[in-house]
Design a protein that fits this description.
alpha+beta; Glutathione S-transferase Yfyf (Class Pi), Chain A, domain 2; 2 domains; five-stranded mixed beta sheet; four-stranded antiparallel beta sheet; 9 strands; DUF4365; DUF4365 domain-containing protein
Length: 356
């Protein structure tokens, strides 16, 4: 996991505001780069109230589309599904190092808007994270915090048996997302075979002197466009399944890791869990390469026919979506493995230090 100074600036700036202006408690998330960067806890006269809000912190202009009155943050389907599984209030924090200004918005069904393929959150420029925002943010706190299992896990407190079973069941979603990746590759291979068949047919048409305006050629182009449309729809559906199952699965997997670290102190089980996902980044990398190859092939298709232009545009859009979602998943898993291994190493050093 590479060190990124811009991201660190965002975390440091947010922590400073929470400590200095809110006089609240800031707890950075030990397992980083999944979906939550920190938890903040309300404090009254120096006494923690047990009321928490989760933070996702993004830093740098490059993360946002900037306009005169708002910052727009585009959300992957994976992060959207991850956030939907979280059971406490959440804020998206935007830090712009160039101006040293920090903004906030609640992450909720109300503020997350659907785009054509993904999601977005608009952060009004007026939503600056400072002492003036404290009262409004405090309204998001709830007395039900003590019921939130995510908080109990983070604090190392015992969780109820239902949560344990839910985590175990939802962790199996990662197997579903692996199956979806395999299915996507199969769809790619199937479409590639049909594309090769069409190429041979068009080559034959050229040899016998048919022009691109020939009814026979136009009909075959229509069939090729139909096959492309069907493939793109099926691949988009698999991408949606992948994002949903990965988002739910990685959330549960992260919780399982934290349970073993902070509640049971079962490092052996942590290592066992990590082994179950350590091949996923390389598998995703292979899938990305396959999709990239297809993308290059499709981009070279001629644009002499309207039906083919429309099909090509749709397929390129779906391929872009798949690549983006796979890249997000690869980064998340890689960083989760690395940060977990660092905690294992830290834990081992503590045990070694205690030995006489």
């Amino acid at each position: 996991m590479r060190y990124k100074s811009t991201e660190r600036l965002g975390v440091n700036a947010t922590e400073g505001i929470i400590l200095r202006e809110f006089d609240w408690i800031f707890r950075e998330q030990p397992i980083v780069d999944v979906g939550i960067d920190a938890l903040i806890e309300e404090s009254e006269d120096g006494n923690p109230t047990g009321k928490f809000i989760a933070l996702q912190i993004k830093s740098g202009k490059g993360n946002f589309s900037l306009s005169r009155d708002k910052l727009t943050y585009y959300i992957s389907n994976i992060h959207h599904n991850y956030w939907l599984n979280f059971d406490i209030p959440m804020l998206l924090i935007a830090h712009i190092p160039e101006t040293n200004l920090t903004y906030w918005i609640e992450i909720s069904q109300r503020t997350i808007k659907k785009t054509k393929k993904r999601w977005k959150v608009d952060i009004p420029i007026r939503n600056k994270l400072n002492i003036k925002a404290k009262e409004k943010i405090a309204e998001l706190l709830t007395d039900k915090n003590y019921e939130y299992q995510s908080i109990k896990i983070f604090k190392g407190e015992d969780i109820d048996s239902q949560t344990v079973y839910d985590i175990a069941e939802k962790s199996t979603c990662l197997e579903d997302c692996k199956d979806s990746t395999i299915k996507t590759i199969e769809l790619l291979e199937s479409f590639t075979l049909k594309s090769n068949e069409s190429s041979e047919k068009f080559k034959y048409f050229n040899e016998i002197g048919l022009t691109f305006k020939s009814p026979r050629v136009i009909a075959s182009v229509g069939t090729y466009a139909k096959n492309m449309n069907l493939a793109s729809k099926r691949m988009e559906n698999e991408c949606q399944i992948f994002s949903e199952t990965f988002g739910a699965g990685i959330f549960a997997f992260e919780q399982a890791i934290m349970v073993h670290f902070f509640i049971t102190q079962d490092i052996e089980n942590v290592q066992k869990n990590l082994k179950s996902v350590e091949t996923l980044p390389s598998a995703l990398d292979s899938a990305i390469k396959g999709v990239n190859f297809m993308q290059e092939s499709i981009s070279k298709l001629p644009e002499d026919y309207k039906t083919l232009i429309i099909a090509k545009k749709q397929m390129m859009s779906v391929v872009d979506l798949i690549i983006d979602e796979y890249k997000v998943a690869k980064i998340i898993v890689g960083n989760l493995i690395e940060s977990s291994n660092k905690l294992i190493e830290k834990s081992a050093n503590k045990i070694s230090y205690k030995k006489p």
